[in-house]
Fold this sequence. Notes:
The protein is globular. The strands form 3 sheets. Strands 7-6-5-4-3-2-1-8 form an 8-stranded parallel beta sheet. It has a 6-stranded antiparallel beta sheet with strand order 9-10-11-16-13-14. A two-stranded antiparallel sheet has the order 12-15. Residues about 1-15 have low confidence and may be disordered. It contains 13 helices and 16 strands. A hairpin with a 2-residue loop joins β9 and β10. The longest helix has 14 residues, at about 165-180. Helix content is about 30%, strand content about 20%. By secondary structure, it is an alpha/beta fold. Alpha-D-galactopyranose (GLA) binds near residues 79, 127 and 156. It is found in: Lysosome. Homodimer. Keywords: Disulfide bond, Glycoprotein, Glycosidase, Hydrolase, Lipid metabolism, Lysosome, Signal. It is an enzyme of class 3 (hydrolase). Its main location: other.
Amino acid sequence: MLSIVWIILLSSSLCNCLDNGLAKTPPMGWLSWERFRCNTDCVNDPDNCISEQLFQTMTDIVVADGYASVGYEYINIDDCWLEKHRSHEGKLVADRKRFPNGIKALSDYIHSRGLKFGIYEDYGNYTCAGYPGIIGYEEKDALQFAEWNVDYVKLDGCYALPYDMDLGYSTFGRLLNGTGKSMVYSCSWPVYQIYAGIQPNYSAIQTHCNLWRNYDDIQDSWASVENIIDYYGNNQDLIAPNAGPGHWNDPDMLIIGNFGLSYEQAKTQFAIWSILAAPLLMSVDLRTIRPQFKHILQNRKIIAVDQDPLGIQGRRIYKHKGIEIWSRPIGPLYQNFYSYAIAFVNRRTDGTPSDISVTLKELGLINYSGYRVEDLYENVDYGVLYPNTKIKVKVNPSGVVMLKGEVQFPADL
Ligand code: GLA
């Protein structure tokens, strides 16, 4: 009898994976890094420095201005929240001047507004900006995060050895889980390995992390967004199959509403991120964002594509002379026919919009009962179209047209 119990226990512990039941759809929220960086100068720049006030303010706006009601729920600190040294007992301490009430108070504030709280650390000796990393303190720090009621941990990979990450990242994920407090686990494991010339073990990564960075940090420019789009398109055979409910590729933050993207480009970032089933982490000053950018970030139809419960990452299915078509299978399904979100992207810069004409069949929409087609930005309903119907869209330079084709069931069903 005892040995049977032992065998059951043993087999249930064979999977040392994360399996925390979180991030069944890509996480949505706000993250400080791209917009606010490592601004620690609260004396000269009190409104923009990394401080508890900044996170409280963003929390308030996420709730008051409608972001929470469309799905944004995490308020996440990035780098530069720490004191340069641990306490005498080896604990992590938030900067005493900029977070005078400490992390637990901030976490409580965010939770009291109905949102969730995320924090940043680094697997190595230091964070990328030079604050204490977790190495040597993994267990202590995991417990500390649980005590602070953290809901989401981004673990960066500066000042660490990429070869050690297979063990280090998986161990820390297990420690987080072992605290009994469920925390979304965001890893930078593959990106540092890729830069070190190591082929990441994506099957291990997707069992231990809820999301992971594959590529460069996003910067405030269209060139940076284009680079990321190209990376995910050019490497899709390797990358796309790893995404699914509970585990996502992370092409980095949304920079919509900052200085670098035009209105068209911002729409393109949002459309492609939703095709990629990407986490939607806004990094923007919500106090000053212009209404048209807010409108993009709150587009419920595109958010629904991103959050599609099937969790299948989309792909670039066409690329020629600056025109790209991206496609993502989504629900509802009829038999084995999916519905689809389709993004037509114009990477050309020749001033006038470009026409793209294509039949549904050419896009892979082959169900004879047809598809109800609508434009997700323009709110145009094209009605039910069939595989042989040719559709024509006009796409602005560096812009996008995004359609959804919802599979139709045969009339006699
Ligand atoms: C790395 C990460 C960024 C950000 C910074 C903070 O570069 O990739 O997302 O967290 O570190 O220093």
